[in-house]
Amino acid sequence: DPNDCSRAKQPFVLSNPYNFSLDIRIPGVIPTESDSYYCMAVPVPTSKEAYIVDFVPHATMDTAHHMILYGCQTPYATQGYWDCGKELGTCRDQAKIMYAWARNAPPTKLPKDVGFKVGGDTRINYFVLQIHYGDVKNFRDHHRDCSGLTLRMTSKRQPFIAGMYLMMSVDTVIPPGKKVTNADIACTYPSSPMYPFAFRTHTHSLGEILLYCICLHQLSSYLVLVNGCTFYFANISGSCCVSCSSGKVVSGYRVRNGQWTQIGRQSPLLPQAFYPVTNTIDVRNGDILAARCVFTGEGRTTVTQIGGTSSDEMCNFYIMYYMDNTHAVPYMNCGDDGSSELFQNIPSEANIPIPV
Ligand code: IYT
Ligand code: CU
Ligand code: CU
């Protein structure tokens, strides 16, 4: 098992004057409850600028649900690990997502000559790893988990930098019971050309999160309307299932001269990893980037808004791109609502749910 903590490993290995690898592992955690999040920080091993050119995940399907690697200047803590439940407590400054591993999704590879620039004047001095554990029954034997990532790095300047364009909705309100609520985001792209190569969607489609709870009713199934979600008690080892997945499908497009070209489209119920883009395109100054999250309020009894807890929602479309290193802009984001006249031309597939 590659994540047992027995293997003694040096976290930092210098393979030659330019190339080195950095092992980032959660230091022997035993999750005590299901659906728990743990974080730990590791300093960028050089104050000079360096590039991450490859990520190697070490996690097994039956322990971690997902892992996310962030870069930032000041982590929440610099020693040990901490509980960073529900998107809180990764960094004190704005975290920058660089990698996401999700159970059953193929790991993302960067194109040749592309690297995430860190250290130097990038203001990325720490890596923060977040690991989300699913069902705690895998830890009944109280084994320690040392899942994590190995970063392949180089101090050799890369011709292209990897960057992240984050599209996020901030003011979406999902009325209870309403069948369809579209969260639309759009911005005009202002910078030098970027070349998207991967995308990631994120909503809190609660999906089938197994919530361990003392199910008083050992009935085969029992529908209860609780705090806006429909719970059903399935007597699978006394766990309850929540089935109020509200995020249905998330799509992202480039709009140029009225022409909509899909960058990515995914069901957030599927593993939230970075997937290869649908079309290999460029995005240039003057293009519009547009994204839509389709939510439903069915099965809920209360209004749902954007927020960090599992009873709130989020609507994110991430574009991982490369850009010429000479005009490097490594992070951009868009939080503007798309206009209705723009979105009246969105392709119909944006509202067709993806069967999972
Ligand atoms: C309010 C919201 O949508 N938060 C998202 C997007 C976000 C990501 C990062 C916002 C900021 C960030 O620095 I990185 I400000 C959110 O928290 N998304 C989660 C976290 O990245 C874990 C996700 O899984 O995409
Ligand atoms: Cu997860
Ligand atoms: Cu979220």
TrEMBL record:
Domain Copper type II ascorbate-dependent monooxygenase N-terminal: from-to ranges: 23-138
Residues covered by the Copper type II ascorbate-dependent monooxygenase C-terminal domain: 161-209, 245-346
GO biological process, one term: peptide metabolic process
Alphabetic keyword roster: Calcium, Copper, Disulfide bond, Glycoprotein, Lyase, Membrane, Metal-binding, Multifunctional enzyme, Repeat, Signal, Transmembrane, Transmembrane helix, Zinc
Protein species of origin: Cyprinus carpio carpio
Residues bound to Cu(2+) 1: H65, H66, H132, H202, M314
Protein name (Swiss-Prot/TrEMBL): Peptidylglycine alpha-amidating monooxygenase
Record-listed Cu(2+) 2 binding positions: H204
GO cellular component, one term: membrane
GO molecular function, one term: peptidylglycine monooxygenase activity
Span covered, complete protein: 39 to 394 of 935
Disulfides per UniProt: C5-C146, C39-C84, C72-C91, C187-C334, C293-C315
Family recorded in the similarity comment: In the N-terminal section; belongs to the copper type II ascorbate-dependent monooxygenase family. In the C-terminal section; belongs to the peptidyl-alpha-hydroxyglycine alpha-amidating lyase family.
